[in-house]
Specification:
It is built from ten helices and 18 strands. The longest helix has 19 residues. The protein is an alpha+beta fold. The protein has two domains: about 240 residues, Naphthalene 1,2-dioxygenase Alpha Subunit, Chain A, domain 1; about 110 residues, Rieske [2Fe-2S] iron-sulphur domain (Rieske Iron-sulfur Protein, 3-layer Sandwich). The radius of gyration is 22 Å and the shape is globular. About 40% of the residues are buried.
Amino acid sequence: MSESLIDADIRQARTLPSRFYTEPEQFNRLKSVFSGWQFAAHSSELDAHTIQPLEHIEAINGESMILVQGDETRCMSNVCTHRGMRLALEPCTKKSLQCRYHGRTFNLDGSFRHMAEFEQVYNFPDEGDDLPQFPLKQWMGMFFTAQGEAMDLPWDMLEERLGFLNPESFTHDETRDRDHSVDANWLLYVDNFLEGFHIPYVHPELNQALDSSGYVTETFDGGVMQIGKAMKGDVKFELPTGHPDEGQDIAAYYLWLFPNMMFNFYPWGLSLNIVVPVSHNTCRVLYRGYVRDAELANEGAGSVLDTVEDQDQWVIEEVQRGMESSVYDRGRYSPTKEQGVHHFHRMLARFLTPQEP
């Protein structure tokens, strides 16, 4: 696949071919897009447990990582350098990391500390006995890490838009957490998230809370921002003076970061969706809730999340079945409603090795 497969001009472009949603080979080709930035945890989770195994990242890209808050916060390998045992099996708070297999012990900065029965080993320990480190980015109280080289994202621009919410003050609410298995390719979940076109048809309850005529989609390198306008009299953000959207009645900011992270900001707080690829026709969607003002949780666009999530899963499972059709391959984009989907497909194209269409 080359970038030219998705035309830069949305008015004449055709969507991603159906084989990318239905064939194991194409699913495997896309695995490389998950080596960049991934959400690790919110700072409030480290307040509860200073050692956080990042199980969701291991599910996404196969790398076992751990987030540790010691003299500073670090992301490092969660694999013992002796025989490969995973070190932290659940969130906890400890002064050191000890392998449950043979007792090798590490300091909270990842450096080797102690190992019994190794007195006769030459040149031991050396740097290879320390835990490898991964890059770590803190943004508005949220930590992100990467397995490989990560694209630079416009963190400052996004903070200018969302920083007034003070997300670092949010607290993790475990009662809002969900883990859903969906019988659809992960691409379909992202495609669906990146357009509000379907809201009147799929989400009647959400449609009553959002003014669809004022729905806005903005694209940028590395992501998409969608802005949902509130119906008259419904709950909305109190925007500060000088905010880029000052004077507008905004019910929700829907931020997507490539390739699989969705940050849904409502007046009550943040609902985070992380899509985990499983196979060419299945995925998992992890939902995490971080609360700013619980009293607002039953009002407006952010009050019907479980219903909306069920509706989204229903529709993309039906689309997955349609993608298997022998007579369907590609569609066209709406230039006014599907800019986000087009942007996503263009980004995918840049990350793939050229191949015959």
